[in-house]
Design a protein that fits this description.
Elements: H1 2-17, H2 19-54, E1 60-66, E2 69-71, E3 73-74, H3 77-82, E4 87-93, E5 95-100, E6 105-111, E7 120-124, E8 132-136, H4 137-142, E9 150-154, E10 160-170, H5 174-177, E11 180-183, H6 185-192, E12 198-199, E13 201-206, H7 212-222, E14 226-230, H8 231-252, H9 254-268, H10 273-284, H11 289-320, H12 328-332, H13 349-375, H14 379-384
Parallel strand pairs: 6-11, 8-10
Antiparallel strand pairs: 1-2, 1-13, 1-14, 3-12, 4-13, 5-6, 7-10, 8-11, 9-10
Helix pairs in contact: 1-11, 2-8, 2-9, 2-11, 2-13, 9-13, 11-13
Length: 385
C-alpha cells in the first residue's frame, strides 16, 4: 500500500508538470461526459415524471375511431362497458385543445364536475358553474389571470367568453397542469359546441389490475369501432417517445463522442518524447516494467475519473438546477406553453456505470498500452530517442 501511495503521489506530480496539456484534455473529456450524462439524466427523470403523471390515471381509456382518427364517442357506450364483469367506475370525459392567438400558446381544456384527486389547488377552488374556471400556473402567468381574475377565450362560434378564475392549481407533475384550463362539464360542452350525448372519451376503472387486458379485449369485441388504451400502454408509449428523443439527441451530439474517440486514438498511437524520456529515466534508476505500467494506469485513471466526476456534476447542475436549458426544448415537443421544468433529481447507478465504462476504460487503456511499448524498450535507447 505504501508503494502504491508513493506511485500515486508521483503520478499527481507528473500530471501537474504537464498541467496545461492535462487541462485541455480534461476540458474536452469533461464536456463529452457532461453532454452524454445530461441526456441520460433528463431521459431518466422524464420517464419518472411520466410515471408520476399517469400513476393516478384511469386503468383504461376508451376512444372511438372514425376513418382511423379519434372521434367523439357516444355516452351510451358507457352503459355497455359498465355491464362487463370486473369493471368499476365508468366516466365519460370531456376535453379538447385550444389555441390562444393572443399569446401563441396551446391550452388543454378539461371538463370536470368533481375535484380530481390528481389536481391539488394552490389557491382557490374548483369551478362550480359555467362561468368559472381553474387554471394551471403557466396559463395564469401568460394571461396574468390569478385567482379572482378573468380569462377570456373564443368559443367554437367565434364569440368571446369570459370565465372567472376561481383557482390556480398544481399537481405532482408540472407537465400535467401547466397548460390546463378546467371548466365544468356543461361549460366545456357549451364552449366547444359538442353534440348532445357525445364525449371525448371514456375512463374505465377495473377492480383487478390483472384483468385490464381482458376487459380491453371485451370492450373491443362489444364495441368494434373503439380503441381501448391501457395505462401500461400509455407508459410504454411515453418510454418509447423519450427513448427515441434521447437517441435523436445522442445522434446530434455524436460529434462530441467522435471527438473523444479521436482524442483516445491519438493518445493510443504513441506518447510524447518527453514521456518516453521520463519512462527511460525511471527504468534506469531501478523501476521495473510493472511499476511503470502502474504509474501510467494511475495517471490515466486520475485524469479520467476527474473528468468523469466533473462532467457528471456539470450535467446534474444543468439538468436539475438550471432546468436543462440546452435540451429542454428538444424534449418538450410541439407545445408552445412549456411547463416550468422542475425535474426530480434521479441518478440511475446502472446508467452511471455504463457511462463510466464507456468513457473511462478507453482512456485508461490508451494511456497504458503505448507506455508498455516504451517500458519494455532498452532505457538507453529510449532516452536517446
Amino acid at each position: 500500500m505504501r508503494k502504491h501511495g508513493k506511485i500515486i503521489e508521483y503520478a499527481l506530480s507528473s500530471l501537474l508538470r504537464r498541467k496545461f496539456r492535462c487541462l485541455a484534455i480534461l476540458a474536452a473529456y469533461a464536456l463529452t461526459v457532461a453532454i452524454l450524462a445530461s441526456i441520460l439524466f433528463m431521459t431518466g427523470s422524464l420517464k419518472i415524471e411520466a410515471r408520476n403523471l399517469l400513476g393516478s390515471s384511469a386503468d383504461l381509456i376508451v376512444q372511438r375511431l372514425l376513418a382511423g382518427r379519434h372521434d367523439l364517442i357516444p355516452e351510451a357506450y358507457a352503459e355497455t362497458i359498465r355491464g362487463i364483469p370486473g369493471v368499476g367506475t365508468v366516466t365519460p370525459r370531456y376535453w379538447g385543445y385550444y389555441y390562444d392567438a393572443l399569446t401563441g400558446a396551446n391550452y388543454t381544456l378539461l371538463g370536470t364536475d368533481r375535484k380530481e384527486s390528481t389536481l391539488e389547488l394552490l389557491h382557490g377552488r374548483m369551478p362550480g358553474g359555467r362561468g368559472e374556471c381553474a387554471v394551471g400556473a403557466g396559463v395564469s402567468a401568460v394571461r396574468f389571470a390569478g385567482e379572482g381574475g378573468e380569462l377570456i377565450l373564443t368559443d367554437s362560434r367565434g364569440m368571446g367568453v369570459s370565465f372567472q378564475v376561481v383557482g390556480v392549481f398544481r399537481a405532482e407533475s408540472s407537465m400535467l397542469t401547466n397548460d390546463l384550463v378546467v371548466l365544468t362539464d356543461d361549460g366545456l360542452i357549451a364552449f366547444f359546441g359538442l353534440p348532445e350525448g357525445r364525449a371525448t372519451d371514456i375512463m374505465v376503472e377495473v377492480h383487478n389490475e390483472d384483468e385490464v387486458q381482458t376487459v380491453a379485449r371485451k370492450v373491443k369485441r362489444l364495441l368494434p369501432d373503439t380503441r381501448p388504451i391501457t395505462k401500461r400502454e400509455l407508459l410504454r408509449t411515453y418510454d418509447m417517445a423519450f427513448n427515441w428523443r434521447s437517441g435523436m439527441m445522442l445522434t446530434i451530439f455524436a460529434a462530441a463522442v467522435i471527438a473523444f474517440c479521436i482524442l483516445a486514438w491519438d493518445k493510443a498511437t504513441g506518447i510524447s518524447a518527453e514521456e518516453k524520456q521520463e519512462i527511460g529515466i525511471l527504468k534506469a534508476i531501478g523501476w521495473d516494467t510493472a511499476d511503470v505500467l502502474v504509474l501510467k494506469f494511475w495517471e490515466g485513471l486520475i485524469l479520467s475519473m476527474t473528468a468523469f466526476l466533473l462532467g457528471v456534476i456539470a450535467a446534474f447542475v444543468h439538468v436539475f438546477f438550471l432546468g436543462a436549458t440546452l435540451l429542454a426544448h428538444i424534449i418538450m415537443g410541439w407545445s408552445v406553453l412549456f411547463p416550468e421544468f422542475r425535474l426530480v433529481p434521479h441518478l440511475d447507478p446502472y446508467q452511471l456505470l455504463i457511462l463510466a465504462f464507456l468513457t473511462i476504460s478507453p482512456y485508461v487503456a490508451s494511456t497504458v498500452v503505448p507506455s508498455w511499448k516504451a517500458a519494455v524498450t532498452d532505457p538507453e535507447s529510449v532516452m536517446r530517442g
